[in-house]
# Entry
Amino acid sequence: MDSLDLIRTFREVASHGSFSRAASKLDVSKATVSKYIAELESRLGVRLLNRSTRAVSLTDAGSLLLERSKPMMEMFEDTQAEVQEHASRPTGRLRLSAPLGAGHGDLPKLVGEFMGHYPDVSISLHLTNRNIDMAEEGIDLALHFGPIEDENLIVRKLARRSLVVCASPIYWKKHGKPAHPSELTEHDTLTHSRLGPHPQWRFEVDGKPFDVQVKTRMDANESAALIQVALQGFGLIYMPEMLVQPHIDHGELVPVLQAYTRNDMWLSAAYLQRRHNSAALRALLDFLEMRFGREGKSAR
# Structure
């Protein structure tokens, strides 16, 4: 049995000077109280209470335990109340991870908006493109773009997100626009490092996957670098529309092949377990669903 329960029982007996009154206060039987006290004395190897048919009094060891256990029990009860508050009211710090490119999209604005709604919640935002172990690194929620292969994670789809092939007007003027994905083999591309030295881009042609091996002029592990090089006219990029939409809106990048880009890509939130999540995490999940629109259900 838990040592804290034993000490709490001892303190009630000492406070009331009676096993019966302590049992009533703790809502347990007198026999249970007696058992707990005997167990505590056995663990400590010393008698804590003098017992008679009419009274209960403290031994010297019992007086010491009563005095020394007071701040410990007060700290535990205060901590317990604070922890329980995490379950009932959004509070505390959440550790959130997302791909590097998300730092240049709407995510920082959304995080700020969430903190405005929940002033007692703090956020630690970690932007990375490497695979992370959420348990080992203490991540509460991970945002992913595309499939999530880890079967140990709970995945909640937030919104379908389109991919877009685009380049600068300068590039299109010099090289011409492709009319079909197969024509991309003749173009310079700027690719993500995770695709390796022989990158392939996937499209959909007649409802079926269509892979094109492209010639990479430059690769990088961060989308923002590829976007900046594309703006200078050095090649095509193929990435989530949300990362390049401001440049498209300003005419700095021009999309092509919209009829062929894949439409099975989702922005998803992943977390470790369904039960006993903090109120802050539940609030963040609900907020993200509300903001992105509930376009999907939990994948698992």
